[in-house]
Each structure stands twice: as C-alpha cells, then as structure tokens.
Design goal:
The chain is mostly helical. 74% of the residues lie in helices and 0% in strands. Helix 9 runs parallel beside helix 13 and helix 10 packs antiparallel against helix 11.
Length: 390
C-alpha cells in the first residue's frame, strides 16, 4: 500500500503498540551501556567510561530518534513497515551485544555494523515514503540519499587506524546530525507535535524505570552481604526520591509547545540526547555509590557522589532549557536551575548525600505551587519552517 504522509492535525494520535515495543528493545541497549559505564566508573576509568558511553549512546539515541520522527510522518502500520521496523530492532540487539567489547577493548566493529543495518532499514522506509510523499518528496529523497551516504562512510571508517577512526567518528556524528537540517529545508515533512512529545515522554519514563530497577537490584544485592545496611537503605530512599522528582520535573510543562519550526524542533530533538543519556547514566552513578559503600570501588567517595549528581543536574537543566523555561514564571525559572546546580555541587557540601533528596523535594514543592503558564501558541504543523524529521 502507498505510504501516504500522516495528517499533522490528526486528532487522538497516540503511540502504537509497535512503537512501544520498539522502545523496550532500545532500552535493552541503554541498560547494557549503563552497566558498562558503572564498571568503568568503579574501576576509576572515568575518561574512558564517559567517552565510550557518550559514543555508544549516540548510536542508540540517533537510531531511536530517526525512526521516531519518521514514524510521526509516515506510519502506515502495514506488514512491510512492521518488518523494516523489526529489522531495526534486531540491529539494536546486535549493537547491544557489541557494547562490552567497545568499552573494554575499544572494538567498535560490531557496533558500527549493527548501526549501519538499522540505518539501511530506515533508508528503505524513506525510499518507500518518497514514492507517495507528494510535496515532501524532495525531503524524503534527501533523507534516503544522505543517510545512505553516511553509512558508506561508517563502513569505510572501520578500515582506518585507531587514531584516525576516532577523528572520523566526530566527523560522522556531525554528518548524521546535518542530514535532517538539509532534508527539512527542501520542503519539509509532516509531523505531529502531540505524538512526538508523547513518544519522547514514554521513552523517558522507560529510561527512568530502568534506572530505578537497576539501582534497586544493586542495592538488594549489596544488602545480602549484610554490611552498611543503614547507608544502603539511605541510597534506596535517595533513588526513589530522585527518580520521582525527575519524573515530576520532566512532565511539569507541556512538551508539544516546544516543537514548532525547524529551530525549535532541532533543539528539542537533539537536546534530548543529554536528557536521555543522563537518565540512562543515573543507575550507573547510583551503583557506583553502592560500590563505594560496600568497599568494591576504586573511586574516591566524593567522585562517586558526582557520578550520580552530574546525571541528575544534566537531566534537570536539559529539561528546563528545552521545555520548562518557556512555560515557567520568574520564580520557577530561578528555582529549577538553582536546584540543579545545588545538586551538582552537593558532593562538595559537608552534609550527607541525603541533601540531594532535600533539594529535589524543594524543587518539586515549588512546581506544585506554580502552574505552567498558558503558552500554547506554536507554528502550525507542516507549515513552511517545519520540524526536523530524522
């Protein structure tokens, strides 16, 4: 059947069961990346761990976001669409299998090959969409050609020596990010702000849930050893308070109003790399703190505390910059970023780590007392300066 563009003003548009299934598979890869980050943090390999996590997470995030923005415009939910989506899901599972080798041996061959498989499946979807895209045909063709060209370069990068490979990675990241910019300026594709904001919100929820589960498992395992029970219970309370507070912060303001023209959409979509990465890294930070408490870490206690306060601060500041500040009054626009900064520097304050929970509770109380401002005006969906598809 033809892959007609979806109506950007369609009422009742919600995430499909296939999209939810897609998210769950991608979170498997995020979970494995978080586990590897935890190991490298506890072994005091900070720089290597952070760099590896940032690179691996880019591949996961970019493949997820590319499909998500494509689906908001051209989801037909027929057998071929489902099949090509499942191919991308298979690709991320293969990618997940290569994450350990990337962290431990700097071997990115499996990751690159799996990533290319996912991207080629998306190219097939863009080619199919171009046949019946109407006014969006120039954009869909640009997507297909641009993404395919970058994948050829990814494969060629595997032939480079180690030092040149890392330089190529930076260049190719930039190339990946530039494709939507060029494609959307060639006519644009339709998008549904409410559908997109729901998709980003659901993925954030799953990431926070994964972090909560992983942290809880680490605490339960440590409790079985019978040492430092009081401190571990404190970490458990902290984990619950932090996760709940991050959820409250993220969903306080309506997200669909942050998706407008190309500039707004670029900021919203690309900026979520930091929000998603922070949510995924939170469990690694909590687990690093547990390792310090149980004597299984080479990290200094202060550094271990930064391992969880940094993700919290990045998540809050990212959400505030992308969404909240446009819907917040003067008080919230001071309290929220100030709270993030206080959480960030908490390890340097001579007070037990529970101070983080107190700060976040204060931020939530402020949000309860202040409703978002009614700023629902945005560019009409599908008009001139459209949102970025990927």
């Amino acid at each position: 059947m033809p892959m007609w563009p979806r109506d950007p003003n369609e009422t009742g548009r919600t995430a499909s069961s296939l999209e939810l299934f897609f998210d769950l598979v991608f979170v498997v890869a995020v979970s494995i990346a978080s586990v590897q980050l935890h190991h490298q943090l506890s072994e005091a390999h900070l720089f290597e761990g952070i760099v590896n996590y940032a690179v691996v997470f880019f591949g996961i995030w970019w493949a997820w976001m590319n499909f998500t923005w494509f689906a908001t415009s051209f989801d037909t939910d027929d057998w071929l669409y489902r099949l090509l989506t499942i191919v991308q899901m298979g690709g991320v599972l293969v990618l997940a299998s290569g994450i350990q080798a990337a962290f431990e041996d700097q071997d990115y061959v499996v990751l690159v090959l799996a990533y290319v498989v996912m991207r080629i499946a998306l190219v097939a979807l863009w080619v199919r969409a171009s046949r019946s895209a109407g006014d969006a045909r120039r954009s869909t063709t640009t997507y297909a050609v641009g993404i395919a060209a970058v994948q050829i370069l990814w494969l060629a990068s595997l032939l480079l020596p180690a030092a040149a490979f890392w330089a190529a990675v930076i260049v190719l990241f930039g190339a990946e990010l530039s494709v939507p910019i060029f494609a959307e300026r060639r006519g644009g594709t339709p998008w549904h702000p409410h559908h997109l904001s729901e998709r980003f919100g659901l993925f954030t929820l799953i990431l926070l849930g994964e972090s909560l589960l992983a942290s809880a498992n680490a605490i339960i395992e440590a409790l079985h050893e019978g040492d430092a029970v009081g401190r571990l219970i404190g970490v458990a309370v902290l984990t619950l308070v932090v996760t709940a507070a991050l959820w409250w912060v993220y969903f306080w303001a309506p997200h669909h109003t942050a998706i407008g023209g190309l500039g707004l959409s670029l900021g919203y979509g690309y900026g979520h790399y930091f929000i998603f990465a922070a949510a995924g890294a939170l469990s690694a930070g909590i687990e690093a703190e547990v390792d310090v408490i149980t004597g299984h870490s080479e990290l200094h206690p202060v550094v271990a505390s930064f391992a969880y306060t940094v993700p919290i601060a990045v998540f809050i500041l990212g959400t505030w910059l992308l969404v909240m500040r446009r819907s917040a009054g003067r008080h919230i626009n001071v309290i929220v970023p100030a709270g993030a900064v206080l959480v960030l520097v908490d390890p340097l304050i001579p007070v037990p780590f529970a101070l983080t929970a107190v700060i976040l509770t204060g931020v939530v109380v402020a949000l309860v007392w202040h409703d978002p401002l009614d700023r629902t005006t945005q560019l009409p969906a599908g008009s001139g300066d459209t949102a970025v598809s990927a």
